[in-house]
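re: ur question from yesterday

yeah so i grabbed the chain u mentioned. its 173 aa long if i counted rite. heres the sequnce exactly as i have it in my notes:
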Amino acid sequence: MPPRRPSHAFGARALAGLLAATGLLASCVGAASPAPSSPAPSASTPASTLAAATAAPGTATVVAVAWGRIWDRVPASFPLPPDAEPAQPADPVEGPSSGAFTTGLGVAEAAQRVETSLTAAGWSLEATTSGEDGSRDISAVGASPACRSLVVVRPLGGMHFVTVYYGAGCPRP
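ran it thru and got these structure tokens back, copy pasting raw so excuse formatting
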């Protein structure tokens, strides 16, 4: 009896599956890429306009996270460190937020700048706490007592994340 040859049908199916998966992956990566018509923020982009530049098109919506109900973006006027850049990808530890940014400033300096900017913009600081991981949590209240935000400044390797939870009781961004 001659030796049995493998069927090419399995190989063709596997190749077709591989090509389909590659196409799906390419479409997902393309969908996650910024639209060519929206220019990327430059190093000279003011931090106050950076929040608006990174927001997805459409109307802001309220989402629920562990911290509470938040807007899914921050307003353009929200105080951020001057060198803040959109985090790509967003902070993997903090999860969904109103905005995630990176800064080259140290945690203490970035937190101090956020605190100073918040108070200058009319926010009242409720508490600033330090975590075991070196992070700083800044709780603030806006003009209305229902408007609350939490800003987390956290080290991660050689960069630092600034994650903002802009409460649903605050004005729509």
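noticed a couple things. Confidence is low (pLDDT under 50) at residues 2-55. also Residues 47-166 form one domain.
anyway ttyl
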